[in-house]
Each structure stands twice: as C-alpha cells, then as structure tokens.
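DATA SHEET
Item: assembly model
Revision: 1
Owner: S.N.
Input lines:
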Amino acid sequence: MPRKHSAADAPLRLDNQICFAVYSAAHAFNRVYKPLLDRLGLTYPQYLVMLVLWERDDVPVRDIGEKLFLDSGTLTPLLKRLEAAHLVKRTRSREDERQVLIALTPQGHALKDKARAVPQSILAASDCSVSELVAMKDEIVALRDRLNAVIGE
Amino acid sequence: MPRKHSAADAPLRLDNQICFAVYSAAHAFNRVYKPLLDRLGLTYPQYLVMLVLWERDDVPVRDIGEKLFLDSGTLTPLLKRLEAAHLVKRTRSREDERQVLIALTPQGHALKDKARAVPQSILAASDCSVSELVAMKDEIVALRDRLNAVIGE
DNA sequence: TCACATTTAATTGTTCGCAATTGAATGTGC
DNA sequence: GCACATTCAATTGCGAACAATTAAATGTGA
C-alpha cells in the first residue's frame, strides 16, 4: 500500500530537488537586486548585459548571448530597450552586415560608477563570507557547465 | 589610470558573481528538463506545481505559492492551463469563498508515475554523486533563505 | 560563377514572473 | 450591527526566456 510519504516518492519531493533550490535561489536573488537596480533604471538581465559591456565594449549581439547563455529572441528586444534608455547604441557591422554591434554611450559608461554599490549590497544580503560565496559559485558553475555539456549531446 | 582589468572592477566582473552562476545554472537546468517534461506535457513551473500537489492535494492557491515562492499573478494563469490540460480542478472553497482549492484529477494523479523517470535523468545529467548534490542543495537553500530573510526586512 | 549551406539578427507566439490594482469575502473593534 | 482593515484570487501591463521561423549576408564546393 503506497503510504503518504513512501520512500519511492522521495526523489519527487520538492525539498529534495537541487533544481528547485537553484530555481528559487535565482528568484530570491532577483528580489534582492530589484530595489538596487531600480535606482540604476535596469532590470536584472539588463544589468547582466551592462556587466558584459563594461568588460568589453562594441561587441556583436552573439558574443553577449554566448556569455549570458541567451539567444537573440531574448536579447534583441532587451537591447532595444537599453537603446531607448540611451545606454547603448546598436549599429550594423561594416565588415559583416549580418552582425549588430553593441556599444556603450557615455551614459552607459557613466552608469558603471553607480553600479559599484550593487555587489557590496548583495554581499551584505547574502550574510556570508566572500570565500564561502566563491566556493559555492565555483561549485554551481561546475554543475552548470556539466548540464550545458549534456545539452550539447 | 584605470586599466582594463583594474582590481576595483573585480566585483563587477560577470565571472565573479554568484548570482549569475545561480541564474545561468537555473537556465541550464531548465534546458535539461525541457525534453523530459515535454513528454509529460508540462513546463518546468507546471512540473513544480504538480510536485506540490503530488505531496498534498486539494490545497488553496496560496499554499502552492508559499511553497514555490510564487504569487497569484503567476499561478492563476498557470493553474488555468493545468485545468485546461485536465490535470487539476479549481473549485472555490465553501468555508472561505475567497480561496480557490486546487485538486488533482485522475489524470493528474496518474501522471506521477510517468514523472518518476525525471529525477533519475536529471541526476545522470548532473554527473555528480547524490551526496554531493545534497550538500550543494543544502548550501543553496540556506543562501536562498538568508536572501529571503533580507527581503522581509 | 552559381547553387547551396551556414551564420546572424529579427520576428512571432507562448509561457513565466512580478508589481500594482481590483473586487469580493472575511475578520475586528467599537 | 457597522465601519474598517485584511486576506485572497484575479486582472493588467511589462519584461524576460525560448522555440520556430524568416530574411539577409556570407562562405563553400563544384
């Protein structure tokens, strides 16, 4: 007779699933970021794009997509919103007319200084030592990369 | 003179951010789940709702939301889709007419058996021992709960 | 050169996720 | 019993996220 909490059901229990842990942690991060990013006028995915651009400017959409694991269906409208906010400029590459190059505007560059406060606040909110966070991050990245390897068959 | 990779910029670098690790790992999980859940006719958030219901049936929307950290704006349309797929039934509670109770249909119950294959496939894809995954899961859940505690001031 | 595949971004349609609002039901203090 | 706040789901609007398709530019082989 199957009981309410049979051992066979353990793998299906919500609290046993690492994917739900990751899923719900991502949402929790988003909620902590929200008020911080509101001050910058950015959403979290837009913030990620800006992080990429602050590292290297004038890159094709495809490069941004590879770093963030996002495709053009997500990035095209997002980048248009960043352009509407005067943070980036989108121009067709002259060497390869298929590519659209994304470059920061002066305002986009300037926003970087304001953004420096964000990681500090997040560190405080996580209530955790830097070394612990780095260790966790490395584990999660390793897991992510193994998962992504499976997707590519 | 700020160089290309100055130490002051380290906290803003994408690869140093645990939140991006979590964010991208969540997407990677989603992509691994996709083909498995397609066979069940479920999306990942729908699968999470079914996990909750397989543990305890006939619960108000609010209870599901608390377990999954989702609100009615997300759950109402999702539950209507599950109802359209004949997996759940939505009925107003007679004790409290504000509440909508979600109950599994026979088909919803039956789907549980097919779902048992899912966690196994995920375990294989993560290419990791169960004990390692459990340890990681506990760390991530602890981090998530600290973040959620900050949100509630 | 010319047919053909590949690359790249854009578009369309569906589903999440959440903030803000609405409206009905319930509970509370007086 | 009645004004008032609270609770709950539903709704609206916006921004991701992604699959599938489209269209243009480029590369490749015969």
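QC remark: The longest helix of chain B spans residues 130-151.
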